[in-house]
Amino acid sequence: MRGDKRSSPRRVGARSNREGRLGCSPRVSPRGVSGSAWRSSVETTTPRCSQAVALTTATRTARYNPIRTHENKPKATRKQIEAALTLLNDVDKPLIVSGGGVLNAAAEDLLVQFAETVGVPVIPTLMSWGAIPDDHPLMAGMVGLQTSHRYGNVTMLASDFVLGIGNRWANHHTDSVEVYRKGRKFVHVDIEPTQIGRVFGPDLDIVLDAKAALELFVEVAKKWKASGKLKDRSAWVADCQQRKQTMQRKTHFDNVPMKPQRVYEEMNQVFGRDTCYVSTIGLSQIADAQFLHVYKARNWINCGQAGPLGWTIPAAPGVRAADPQRPIVAVG
Ligand SMILES: Cc1ncc(C[n+]2csc(CCOP(=O)(O)OP(=O)(O)O)c2C)c(N)n1
What we know:
Blueprint: H1 9-24, H2 35-63, H3 78-90, E1 94-98, H4 100-104, H5 108-118, E2 122-124, H6 150-158, E3 161-165, H7 171-174, H8 177-181, E4 185-190, E5 204-207, H9 210-226, H10 234-246, H11 260-270, E6 276-279, H12 283-291, E7 300-302, H13 312-322, E8 328-331
The protein binds thiamine diphosphate.
Residues 281-284, 308-309 line the site of thiamine diphosphate.
């Protein structure tokens, strides 16, 4: 009925909002409410809050049924791997994008072996940094918005094909998906089927664990190499290396106080090849990725793109607990 405020939808919404707030909020005793009155209000209202949480969780569980790939790993046929290699072999300027899945699967040695067999440069994502040493001739730099190298971005734009393994095409890596995709073909290999086609549809996809995939890639690539079927990539690799030599960011500043770029230059000289860097988010993550060097798998421990500030503090002792010997530099 018009004018009856109790039955208007706005009022019903407002009342339930108030109830929701009452049920979940009080953390401190509101002014004017005695401690015991406040405690009993919390005791009577808390169950309502946990019921709401339980309901939400139940609804979410009913909707989301993850595929339990860790229990029942998907398999691929040799034909699928051959199809991917055929696409890679047909083009002129191919790249391999190595994602964090390569490190999770402990497949870094296979990655390097595969890249060396086909002679194709590798772009590691931030989560895969260290899978191929920074000074390896096939390490072509990181790509993207912030945690990237100038030569990596230019090499990506010059390429005509990308084979992504264990990666997500995360937005910090791709930046504009339109620019990232334009003029190149893509093959995507990932163990998580919901990642395939999530950002864009590749020309070919293979649902497979990175290690299982790389084992097959190495096997087929070695056969093809022995039979002279693989293209010679030396000109393309030389292009990528030339960019890597000439497109470094400037670090040698003499300013006082010292510029961060110079601090990184000194860090690279002082800390050895075995150093493990632990870092979190913000400018330290960005500048670390732009200026430091990582030479070994899992020597870059990072929470990923939009992680929590302060993560370095518990993460560094975690790395120490896992490995009592490793030289660790915590940056935050
Ligand atoms: C717990 C948490 N709150 C907020 C953010 C969002 N955030 C990301 S970087 C950043 C600024 C960090 O500034 P500072 O600590 O001065 O480091 P800088 O990036 O300047 O090196 C913020 C607020 C976050 N990542 N984590």
